[in-house]
Each structure stands twice: as structure tokens, then as C-alpha cells.
Amino acid sequence: MADISTAHRPIDSGEAAMSRLTQRLAALAPPALDLPHNSIMRPSPAVAAALATSHAISKRAAERARRSRSVVGLTVDSFIAACSFVPYALVALGLRLIMARVFFFDGQSKITGSLLSFDFYNFSFSALLPMQVKAEAVNAFVAAYPPLMVPPAMAATALAYAEFALPLLLVVGFATRFAALGLLLVTAVQFYLMPAGLWTVQVYWAAILLVLLSRGAGALSLDNIIRLIARR
User: Each residue of 46-90: pLDDT tens digit?
Assistant: First the structure.
């Protein structure tokens, strides 16, 4: 037994020496800094925003430089830039006036009543007030197949009043989206009465009204004035 213990003494002394060496090296090492978890150097929000802006500018510049090397790309970009100078306010005003004229004069052909005339310098305007619906308009609903679920006289009266009031709203640009939606319903009724007119005029009316319903009346409208006043 004495021999066995004697044989293990060099190993034990070697392990002790290694342990002492480790302790001395640990004592010579500088103490670890007790830093918080989130103390890693990070750029401030202002610096991060400036870096992001600089990256976006350089990216756009590189994209423009890449496109400028192509004649076709330069031509397309120039054409798009030229088209952007046409304001939507003028486009919307033209679409509103076109649709107002179409539906207003169509409604005038369905009613009888007092004549209202208006003269302003060289501009004259006259319109019938919707006092009574013509028999032809009621007969169109009577002859419809399949018939509507409402009485023909009621349907003809509602259609005539809608074609009188909603175009006026389009002219001044008030409640434009509601007016466009109402005239879309009028277009659907006219398609119900005359399906053959879909690919002649009705589909174009629907396309223009969908633009007004989606984009609104534009800047030249009462809707825009009311919106600006409400934001103050």
C-alpha cells in the first residue's frame, strides 16, 4: 500500500503546481468590467436616421446613374416626369363635369316641370325642375324583364331625382364619392333596363365613376375646402 501511495505523490504534486500557476495567472489578469447588458456602443437615433437617409440617397443616386446609361430608361423617366406635371385636380374636375353633363341631361329627358333659366354674360343655362316623371320613363320599368322588386312608378321617380341631384353634387364637388356611388347604381339600373348599352357607353361611365369613387373630387372642390377647414 505504501508503494502505491508513493507512486501517486508526483501526480498529486504536479496537479497542485498547475493549480497554483492558474491562481497566479488569474491574479495577474485585469479585473472584468461590470458593464450593463445594454451598454454596447450604439449610434444615437439622430445618427441612425442620418445614416439611413444617406444610404437611401446613395441608393437613389446609384439607381439614377444606372438608368441614365440606358437611352430607353432615360426616355421613359422623362415621359413619366412630364406626365406628373398634370395635376389630378384638373383631371378630376374634367371627369366630374363630363359625368354631370351625361346624367343630368339624361334625367331631363325623363321629367316634366317648370323651366329654370340662368343667364350670365354669354353663358346661358336652362333646366326642368323634377315635378313629374314622364310616362315613358315609367313604362321602361313596366316593360323590364325580369321586373324589379319595387313599383315601376317609384323606381322611375327615384331614378329621375337621382339624375337631377347627383350631377349637381359632382359639379361643385360636394360629397363626391357618395354622388359617384349613387350614379354607379343608376348606371347599373340602366344596364338592367338596356343590357345592349353596356359596351357602348355604360362601361365607360362606370370606369370614370370608379376613378372618382377611388380618388375623390380633387383639390378644386367643396370637399377639399371642407377638409382644409376641418384640419384647422
Answer: 677 777 887 788 787 777 666 556 777 778 778 888 887 888 999
Q: Could you tell me how many residues make up the chain?
A: 232
Instruction: Estimate the share of the chain in helix, then strand, then coil, as percent rounded to the nearest 5.
Output: 70, 5, 25
Predicted TM-score (pTM) above 0.85: no
CB 70 within 8 Å of CB 199 = no
Cell of 107: 334625367
Instruction: Give the relative orientation of helices 152-172 and 176-193 as an angle to the nearest 10 degrees.
Output: 140
Residue ranges of alpha helices (H) inside 117-202 are 135-142, 152-172, 176-193
| Sign of the CA dihedral running 195, 196, 198, 202 | negative
Angle between helix axes 88-108 and 152-172 (nearest 10 degrees) is 150
DSSP for 67-131 reads: HHT-HHHHHHHHHHHHHTTS-HHHHHHHHHHHHHHHHHHHHHTTEE--EEEEEETTEEEEEE--S
Domain boundaries, the chain: 53-83, 88-231
User: What per-residue string of b and e applies to 159-191 under the rule 16 or more CB within 10 Å gives b?
Assistant: bbebbbebbebbbebbbbeebbbbbbebbebbb
Q: Which of 185, 150, 148 is nearest to 166 (CA)?
A: 185
Q: How far apart are CA 129 and CA 164, in angstroms?
A: 8
